[in-house]
């Protein structure tokens, strides 16, 4: 039986079980612990709308016990927001009650600890502000990667949460690579045989969905060739928070897939299926909201799925997934999965807007 794997660029992860019912995750709806603004009539806006979390000083990794300045700000000229909620939590945490490291206020007139949830840093008023900064002391050794996550209230009818650059993965400086640490955390697959999948990539980038700084030269709009693979835990095509390889740099900088494809081929002993689709270029009447499909398979050894495609024209932005485990703990294969894809900055170009 062929299984379905759907990738939506800019849209929420939905798991559909064998009974066809969507599985819902339990969320604490108490404000501000859930970081959901109260009394909002509008729904959360997808994406980050140009807002981002930064670790100032261009630190790529943290040293345990070291103090860092963490900021939230916009990337567009004169961009402001009125409120925010910021946490530092374990990587991929579903329960945000465990804080990683400790925050310290720089300006108590603009930032405060939430009374009900002291691990949450938030605004003191709803006046427009160009950005905020707080201090963060890194946790004890051997914690590994952590995540900064932010809710930002841009105005009284627009709020965003965790998408894109509103999540910042920050990893510990050690003598080992993040790839080796991450691979040790991946459990063995106990599913029988192999599984065949059909992947459908659907572009969702348009002037209507993302009007701010949308490129004006339509003929430049595109998704590059998709490059991906099903692979073992001994090889990572790319990884959240890690350095970009030369192949990933080339793909996210220029859309050229050749170096990334070669890197996959160089690790052929750790790869079961190579995934490759053609690029998507703007045309009437669909723009770049088009689809590409690919077929692949997974087995007990190569049960992880990774893929990347460039958003064009951009300085070095890609969307993709890294090491999604298709093997379930109950020794069966995932039947159907829909994943929202949000932009990732490859960190190889300092430009913050699309190239035209």
Mean pLDDT across residues: 83
Rg from alpha-carbon coordinates: 20 Å
* Uncertain stretches: 10-29
- The share of residues in helices is under 10%
N-to-C SSE series? EEEEEEEEEEEEEHEEEHHEEEEEEE
**SSE class:** mainly beta
Distance between the termini: 45 Å
- Count the beta strands: 23
Number of helices: 3
Per DSSP, what share of the residues sits in E-state strands of 2 or more residues? Answer: 35-45%
Q: How would you describe the shape?
A: globular
Largest sheet: 7 strands, mixed
In short:
By secondary structure, this protein is mostly beta strands.
Note down, in words, how this protein is organized.
There is one protein chain. The protein is mainly beta. It has three helices and 23 strands. The strands form four sheets. Strands 4, 6, 8, 9, 11, 12 and 13 form a seven-stranded mixed β-sheet that branches. Strands 15, 16, 17, 18, 20, 21 and 23 form a seven-stranded antiparallel β-sheet that branches. Strands 2-22-1-14-19 form a five-stranded mixed β-sheet, with no helix packed on it. A hairpin with a 4-residue loop joins strand 20 and strand 21. Helix 2 packs antiparallel against helix 3. The longest helix is centred in the last third of the chain and has 9 residues, at 246-254. The chain is globular, with a radius of gyration of 20 Å. The N and C termini lie far apart (45 Å). Residues 10-29 have low confidence and may be disordered.
